[in-house]
Design brief:
This protein is mostly helical. The protein has six helices and no strands.
Length: 103
């Protein structure tokens, strides 16, 4: 799974998870290393919706430890993509086929 493909998909998942799609629209064009709370009001509601969407889409479980590691120092698309990649690599089931932030 390529992180750039995952990041494209994450942009869409986050947009759909947001309570106000127009307010979240900047997610479509931000840098993958930009902290998401600088791009949109990345509330806990959006984060929860994003985690649920990630779990559903990739058939993985996002644990509290996974989320804490991913959000340490601020959350960005690249970190979310890494979280997905690591979870998919360690999961027992195959993912569904796909139709600090600067490290």
């Amino acid at each position: 799974m390529d992180d750039s493909d995952t990041i494209r998909e994450l942009r869409s998942l986050i947009l759909r998870a947001a309570p106000d799609e127009e307010q979240a629209r900047p997610i479509e064009a931000c840098s993958e290393d930009q902290r998401l709370d600088e791009v949109i009001p990345f509330s806990s509601l959006i984060l929860l919706g994003t985690v649920v969407a990630i779990e559903d889409r990739y058939r993985i479980e996002v644990t509290r430890d996974d989320l804490e590691r991913a959000t340490e120092g601020g959350l960005c698309l690249r970190q979310l993509a890494r979280l997905v990649r690591r979870a998919v690599e360690t999961s027992t089931g195959p993912p569904r086929e796909a139709g600090s932030c600067s490290s």
